[in-house]
């Protein structure tokens, strides 16, 4: 049979009512599919899934929350917060709960209840008594997921497995699950910060380019519908800070990138980064030293993408370079990069709007174009950031530094 002759039915979707979650899933949960949600402990996986089930229950869908980790009473307390004033998920308490770690009981319950959607929190806590090995061991996790997969397909239950992520960032044990499940989602952020991003790393029913941004509040997670406005509004205007026009999937996102450069006592000096790749930082520092006359070989360098956002893309290079150079020279980016309303008014010491930038830094010190340049520019303009430093404007890193960090007269 030729592929063109194969009938491909349209994939139905269960909309969760949380727009950001639906978008990352590619339009909602697919009945009978298996989704793995990874994230470090305390990041908000249970909260997110309580909300998802609560919304679906409020929509008349049958749901089931299997908790192997927390008692029914603990889950109820969380649901109360979500259902309470300002929680936005009034039906969170409608969701049936099964506090259980025995796989056979869970499977039997699924067969009896046949819910539309089921959450297993977490895959590492369930175990098959017929199998040796502690819960969470590779053998157990594989068996648990395999059985649940079979049940999900047979009964058409959309199943979400929660998986804990180890320090190294791998889904603990369940790396073995990634090829098995239909969709791998990752919930990221820093526990101390309020922002969280949901990303798809694998999706058989949609793109892996989407990301959703949430904020953790007292009453649960709230979708951040316009993260750029949030991050630009909070951006500091000081030496060591620039705004990066990043892409979160198909959506442009403005985030603040900060750097601190200070004399080091250590050999080799410290390189600490949050939200960007260490190797990219090393590359950018090397190019700054070799092609822009800015050596950091005796300095500690710290780089942070504010808000716990990850900017793992080559387009972030220029922002890292400008933030580091600005920190090292003690110059506020864009201090003279064009007249600002405040400067025109005269006498106002207020720093101008932050400088925005994007672009890849090449090994010979050149700036290279990155995908979606026009959309990144448009996003910056939307927030009044008229001074955008990017590869079309500056050909080299040296030139970009000259434009962004003019020396004071
Ligand atoms: P949780 O969803 O239990 O994380 P995970 O399942 O990923 O381990 O929630 C983590 C933290 O979120 C918890 O320490 C308390 C906090 N939290 C809030 O700030 N607001 C809320 O409404 C809820 C339910 C939790
Ligand atoms: Mg949890």
Automatic annotation (TrEMBL):
InterPro entries: AAA+_ATPase, DNA_repair_RadA, P-loop_NTPase, RecA_ATP-bd, Ribosomal_Su5_D2-typ_SF, Ribsml_uS5_D2-typ_fold_subgr. It comes from the Bacteria. Residues 10-165 form the RecA family profile domain. Pfam families: AAA_25. SUPFAM superfamilies: P-loop containing nucleoside triphosphate hydrolases, Ribosomal protein S5 domain 2-like. GO terms for molecular function: ATP binding; ATP-dependent DNA damage sensor activity; damaged DNA binding; hydrolase activity; zinc ion binding. Keywords: ATP-binding, DNA damage, DNA repair, DNA-binding, Hydrolase, Metal-binding, Nucleotide-binding, Stress response, Zinc, Zinc-finger. NCBIfam families: sms. PANTHER family: DNA REPAIR PROTEIN RADA (PTHR32472), DNA REPAIR PROTEIN RADA-LIKE PROTEIN (PTHR32472:SF10). This is DNA repair protein RadA.
């Amino acid at each position: 049979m030729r592929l063109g002759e194969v009938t491909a039915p349209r994939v139905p979707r269960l909309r969760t009512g949380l727009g950001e979650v639906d978008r990352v899933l590619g339009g909602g949960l697919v009945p009978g599919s298996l989704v793995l949600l990874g994230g470090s402990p305390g990041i908000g996986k249970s909260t997110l899934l309580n909300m998802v089930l609560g919304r679906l229950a409020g929509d008349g869908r049958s749901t089931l929350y299997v908790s192997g980790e927390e008692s029914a009473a603990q889950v109820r307390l969380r649901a109360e917060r979500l259902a309470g004033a300002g929680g936005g998920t009034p039906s969170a308490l409608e969701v049936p709960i099964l506090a259980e770690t025995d796989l056979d009981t869970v499977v039997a319950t699924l067969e009896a209840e046949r819910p539309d959607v089921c959450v297993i929190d977490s895959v590492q806590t369930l175990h098959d008594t017929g199998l040796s090995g502690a819960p969470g061991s590779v053998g157990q996790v594989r068996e648990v997921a395999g059985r649940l997969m079979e049940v999900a397909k047979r009964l058409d239950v959309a199943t979400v497995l929660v998986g804990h992520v180890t320090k190294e960032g791998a889904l603990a044990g369940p790396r073995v699950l990634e090829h098995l499940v239909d969709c791998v989602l990752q919930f990221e952020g820093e526990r101390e910060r309020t922002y969280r991003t949901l990303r798809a790393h694998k999706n058989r029913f949609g793109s892996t380019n989407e990301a959703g941004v949430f904020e953790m509040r007292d009453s649960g997670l709230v979708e951040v519908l316009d993260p750029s406005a949030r991050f630009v509004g909070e951006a500091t205007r000081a030496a060591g800070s620039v705004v990066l026009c990043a892409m979160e999937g198909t959506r442009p996102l403005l985030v603040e990138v900060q750097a601190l450069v200070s004399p080091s006592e250590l050999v080799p000096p410290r390189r600490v980064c949050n939200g960007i790749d260490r190797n990219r930082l090393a590359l950018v520092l090397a190019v700054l030293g070799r092609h822009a006359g800015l050596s950091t070989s005796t300095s500690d360098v710290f780089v942070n993408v504010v808000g716990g956002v990850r900017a793992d893309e080559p387009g972030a290079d220029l922002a890292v370079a400008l933030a580091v150079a600005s920190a090292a020279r003690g110059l506020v980016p864009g201090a003279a990069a064009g007249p600002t309303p405040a400067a025109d008014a005269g006498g106002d010491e207020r720093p101008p709007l932050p400088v925005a930038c994007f672009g890849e830094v090449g090994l010979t010190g050149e700036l290279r174009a990155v995908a979606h340049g026009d959309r990144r520019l448009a996003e910056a303009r939307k927030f009044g950031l008229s001074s955008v430093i990017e590869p079309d404007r500056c050909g080299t890193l040296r030139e970009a530094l000259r434009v962004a960090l003019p020396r004071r007269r």
